[in-house]
Amino acid sequence: MNGKPQGEFGTIAIMVGEMGVPVAMLSGDAAACQEVRDLTAWAECAEVKQGLNRTAGYMLPHPTACALIRAKAQRAMERLGEMKPYKLAGPVEVKLEITTRGTGHWTLGNGIEQVDGRTWIFRGKTFLDAWLKYRPN
Questions:
Q1: pTM for the full predicted model
Q2: Angle formed by the axes of helices 30-39 and 8-18, nearest 10°
Q3: What are 41-75's pLDDT values in tens digits?
Q4: Where are the alpha helices (DSSP H) in the chain?
Q5: Which residue has the higher pLDDT, 133 or 45?
Q6: 112 within 8 A of 137, measured Cβ to Cβ
Q7: Phi, psi at 54, each rounded to 5°
Q8: How do residues 94-127 score in pLDDT, each as one tens digit?
Q9: pLDDT above 60 (res 30)
């Protein structure tokens, strides 16, 4: 987005931030927690697993993970007044690179550009304006 790679969490943080909602807490793997730290210094993060590759990883024991999640959620609620929505300044350009040729099909129109067989760009005044153009036909 706007030339910066974003993962799933970043996309969600930007989407809810545009609606005025701050990210307070995330529970997930080390990569997701790093993504939350990169975007929102105030958000609490319960790192309950670490990926080794696409199909394997290390996880905390269930009781330990549950205790960590509860503690981080409580801390997030205590600090909620410090948290601000993450906002992406407009205009916004969302560049989507799909993994397989032909996976997505969009009608070219205002704010939609096809770069190659796997890459599309959606432009808008705001993130939501650009993102809502991402609806395959």
A1: 0.77
A2: 40
A3: 889 999 999 999 888 999 999 999 999 999 999 99
A4: 8-18, 30-39, 62-78, 127-131
A5: 45
A6: no
A7: -60, -25
A8: 998 877 655 556 667 788 888 887 888 999 999 9
A9: yes
Question: In this structure, what token pair is assigned to residue 46?
Answer: 């319960």
The distance from CA 102 to its chain's CA centroid, rounded to whole angstroms, is 24
Residue 88 has what DSSP assignment?
P
Between CA 76 and CA 82, with CA 78 as vertex, the angle to 5 degrees is 75
Q: How many CA atoms lie within 13 A of 1 on its CB side?
A: 25
Q: Tokens for 119, please give them.
A: 């890459």
Please report, for residues 39, 113, 120, 121, the alpha-carbon distance to residue 130 in angstroms, rounded to integers and kept in the order given.
20, 11, 12, 9
Cα within 13 Å of Cα(118), Cβ side? 5
* Identity of the residue numbered 21: V
Q: How many other CB atoms are there within 10 angstroms of residue 136's CB atom?
A: 10
Cβ-Cβ contacts under 8 Å for 97 (sequence gap 6 or more): 118, 119
Domain boundaries, the chain: 8-82, 92-131
- The domain made up of 8-82 has a fold known as Rossmann fold (3.40.50)
Strand order in the sheet with 44-51: 25-29, 44-51, 57-59
